[in-house]
Amino acid sequence: MALPARRAAAGCGLPIRVVSRRLVRASDPSIRPHVLAVSHLDLYANTEQCALTCVYPKPPTGAGDFDAVVAAFEAHMPAYLNYFFPMAGRIVVDPSSGIPELHCYNQGAELIVAHAGVELSALDWSLSGESLKRIHVPYAQDMVLSVQLLSFACGGFAVVWAANNLVGDGNVGVMLVRMWTELVRTGTISGGGPNHDRSVLRQFSRPRDPPTYGASVAAMYTRWEHEQEVNALTAEESFIERLYYVDERDIARLRGEASAEGRQRATRVQAVSAYLWKVLAGIVATSKLLGEDEKRCRLLWWVDGRRRFSSPELRSSLRNYAGNVTSYVVAAAAAATVLSKPLAGVAAMVREAVTLTPADYDELYQQMVDWMEVHKPTNFVETPAIGLGSPTLAQTMWSSFPNDTDFGFGEAALAMPVHQNLGRLCMGLICITPKPADPGTWIVSAFIWPRLAAVLESDEQRIFKPLTAEFLGLTRGHGLRPRL
């Protein structure tokens, strides 16, 4: 996504000791060095560092210790980079165009080994700033991939897959973990591995001559300038961060309520989105600063286009495409309208917003590409992220990406993207991921208004529960010496 992020300090106060830091290169000498031009949809993502953090409890007896984890990466990472060759390159901005590109000369991906001098259970897992965001080591801005292995005093460990948004979206982040697991366990990656060929996407979405887009697409984006954002003190007081979990049975209950007789059965995403929309509408309806005609609220969803285009051939070629294929849709309504409908009615509103026809998605992406052609290399954000007008709660659903985190040391306790603070932007953000060992249950990262957090945490239904070390299974185990 295009939201600018702010880099946090090393470990955010966590006592992380870096044991080693080195570059790992792909092992296949037949792969020719090349420059990979990014697509227009990659430009939508901008060059922002991001990370998918996998946290593991102490491995089961016989699986091996942290030394064995490090040895697995040292042994398999060169072959892994044969499949993900661009990840061993560097991001370079073309001085004439101002557009970034990938210089794939096998300069090497980064492998960091570090020790965090605390137990995983000592972290406050209800607050991302006190847990997930403390588990990382800063790395160079031009680095495409930094794999960070951190051991903890309890015997657990974390693998941070730190990459750059320019080279891929959330689907690619999960692909990195899933295909690593497959390679370690089987010695190969099925289906030929990831597809880095941007020309596959250009066949569908090269800019038209002249570029053509409508007012609705033009309104989706706003040029990002710091002076257009709210002041820092207002932003800091406006939002808090939380980590929650949502039980499978609670999702099923919401889905039942959102699937009233005579209506199409709601999906899990539609049911939870409908619940969140009603909660947000209830807060907006009580605002003392708004007139009745101003009490409106919006929901935003980021959309992975891989399975939504009309061409079966394109959908097939994009199945393992390692790039960005992300757009977004937004729905707005009066708070009174949302509150007046049963959950099934609000779920129908959600379904209408996200269920465009394949032809509609074809045109949306084509117009997005045309807009990028006219405005590149300008930095921009999704217009609702600025925070003007109706409050907007954005959702990104990583729960739809198939994943496997067990590369020989058991399933991760959680595997979540780490979204840095949205700086001086004023849109609420919720990211939903499945619990690796229990994919029916969701783990949720939230950057939201304090009033929304208060309602979610005091709601009688208790759908969103604060995440704990006990729930994640991180309270067992004893010390483990770091690898020296």
From TrEMBL:
The keyword Repeat does not apply. GO terms for molecular function: acyltransferase activity, transferring groups other than amino-acyl groups. The keyword Transferase applies. Gene3D superfamilies: Chloramphenicol acetyltransferase-like domain. Keywords: Acyltransferase, Transferase. It holds the Pfam family Transferase. InterPro entries: CAT-like_dom_sf, Plant_Fungal_Acyltransferase. It comes from the Eukaryota. Belongs to the plant acyltransferase family. This is Omega-hydroxypalmitate O-feruloyl transferase.
